[in-house]
Amino acid sequence: MKKLLLATALTAVASSSAFAASHGNTVKIGVLLGFTGPIESLTPQIAGGAEIAINEVSNSGKLLGGAMVEAVRADSTCVDSAAATAAAERLITAEGVAAIMGADCSGVTGAVLANVAVPNGVVMISPSATSPALTTAEDNGLFFRTAPSDARQGEVMADILMERGITSVAVTYTTNDYGKGLADSFVASYAAAGGTVTLSASHEDGKADYAAEVGALASAGGDALVVAGYVDQGGAGIIQAALDAGAFETFVLPDGMISDALTDKFGKDIDGSFGQLAGTDSPGAAKYAEMVGDAFDPTSPYASEAYDAAALLLLAMQAAGSSMSADFKDKVEMVANAPGEPIYPGELGKALEILAAGGDIDYVGATDVELIGPGENAGSYREIEVKDGVITTVKYR
Asked: Does the predicted TM-score (pTM) go above 0.70?
């Protein structure tokens, strides 16, 4: 199975020449993530994952005849589409990036794709945009993602609940593409499995008080509360209000809620809560963890997907012999999937050599990604539970 590696820290300026041929050339990769906003506690790790891959490629000296790679960061905010669009425009017009690793949250990713990437013909690979709506977005073959769609996450979450014998839940979700898409997917899957959703209601991020929202959810009832929100914003506020009111004791946590910031805030108060995020226990994941060392938590949400996203961009460039999106966009799936030599984290230099010699690679990467359909990742999930105030792994599925 082919996996997506997304290049890390250094990227190169897209030149008018289709071939970067000397050590003096630099390829720039935009790293467009929510450095501020509702997932800012997750973003340093996601950026770090991408930049490990970028540095690995740059240090190898084997990209396009010796081009260096430079990462250029920009803030998507996760939720402000106008700000994300402006940031992406700056990356392309002022910084001259050859491609974008990002964006992160689904709404801003869709906005950047439609308003910036497609008009400028620039490839994007998102490590974390999971909305099912992105599957059918008009992208001219420019958009890929290493995170699986929430159409799949909703099914997995429903399966976990039914396996735990929880057949009645209330659902709250953040009012954007991510929250609504995940909630819709989950509600449909849970109902099909025989579960009952007592109430599915949205919440706004940035409020000081969520007592009214929690009151409605508590009145509807349920054995647990599904919180499809953001750990640094309304999702945490919902949990705090629920604990204050004694409304729910068990919280079901999708990917946007899983972070050390959650347990730092609530500790043992949310013991027994559980959820899922993209993840795998593949050999590539272990090799990636070795590379990260103690720089940050290698299991942090979407950090390994970011490594794969950045790596995939750079490997596609090598396969095309060009850093121009028009040339390498059709090579992304080729380097990500079989046939070819399996490639794991730490082996990007080897992959570049194979591609330069005209060979094939099957990029396994850190997350065991296989691209299916329109640039989609098939996806595996890590089931977690909070025990003694710590996020622990239950199993992979």
From this structure: yes
